[in-house]
Amino acid sequence: MEDDLSSARGIDYSMLRDFLKAGKWKEADEETIARMLEAAGREEKRVLEERSINEFPCEDLRTIDRLWVKYSEGHFGFSVQAEIYCSLGGTQSCDEQIDEKIWEAFADRVGWRKQGSWLLYPDPNLTFNTSAPSGHLPRSYVAIIFSSLVSRLLTCNIVRL
Questions:
Q1: pTM, full prediction
Q2: For the GUN4-like domain, which residue ranges apply (predicted)?
Q3: Which of 60, 78, 114, 147 shows its CA 20 to 30 Å from the CA of 154?
Q4: Half-sphere exposure of 124 (CA within 13 A, CB side)
């Protein structure tokens, strides 16, 4: 069965699909942020902000997440991360400040922190294979937008909590 690579903005997700299909997790992680920046019209700024996440096309977010979940057999993806985050008590509202204790617990669970120290991208201790904890990838975006991302996943009906 062919993958649905639909995009509200005409973004080509075939390279992301190919990296994921081949198990090239680091390349897929980098391709994810590149395509997200493109879909948000933020290629030149090279950063996603809360507003760009809140307005991110649901169709594109669904495509990216579906590809990650499919090719990692449910191990990676934004929806996997959102479920973990919310199971730890993370807020589903981007109107609220991210709770630092919950954020740290989430980072510990998905392997973004080791012994209380953050593994900043592209730290060599970040794991780019399926032996990484569930939800470890995609990783190439920043914490500031995470609660906005969770909120957008809910708004787009990609994850239901």
A1: 0.89
A2: 7-140
A3: 114
A4: 0
